Amino acid sequence: MSWNPFSRSSSSAPKKTVLSRASQREFEREVKRLDELEELTRRLYKDGKRLTEANNAVAKSERKLSQELLTTALCQTEEKFKWQIDEWDASMVKMDMHMTDRNVKLHRTVLEPLKKYVSIFPYAQVAVKKRDQSLQEFQKSQDKVSKYQERDRTGQNAVKLDLAKKALGTAQTDFTTQNDALMTDVPKMIDTRTDYFQPSLEAHVKSEVQYTTEAVKVYGELSNLMNGHKQQSRHDYASLIQQALTELKALSITTD
Q1: Cα separation of 25 and 197, whole Å?
Q2: What is the distance between the terminal CA atoms of the chain, rounded to a whole angstrom?
Q3: Domain assignments of the chain as residue spans, ordered by start
Q4: What one-character DSSP code corresponds to residue 254?
Q5: Mean local confidence (pLDDT), 215-231
């Protein structure tokens, strides 16, 4: 084919991009913020589940102590000691009920909302992927238009150019719609995260206050039963423990 000095060379002009680098960087920043929010939310959900498991473990461990003591020979021979352990075990039954209620509230007010929040991210990621695919189609359409514009102005090329421009318009509209929606919705989702989590935090704090109040009540009643409703300070308890230790050390079996 002979060289035509009037034809347009494809290498005569740089490739035209349909989206500026600044706009793409802005979009990528928002996507990064979205990814970080998803990672944080998933970690919070996992930590919340670990908290319920830890709560159950604490309740079971303390109940196990009282149950094991009740099976010892000491409880069979020391009536007063057995009575105290029975009271302690009964208190642990109450605390186990309060712990169950605590975990139920934690699940309903914290874990379930977190789980629902996490479920939104896959849809957002699908939207991001569709937007990226739409951008690729937009760029391909622009490249096709540029290609036909660089060809000889024949009737056949004019028809192809017209069709390519129509396809470009459709691709541009599709991309603009998806891009604008994401650039509006993603920042909105990130900015409203506090409003979403605030009720869960408040409910969790109230639940902790209720549990702690019940714990103080249960252990307070148990303490009063064990010391005969005598008001004793920490110093008094420390003195009693120290006295018992001194008596133990004075036994012949503990001397060198």
Answers
A1: 29
A2: 112
A3: 18-119+192-231, 125-189
A4: G
A5: 82
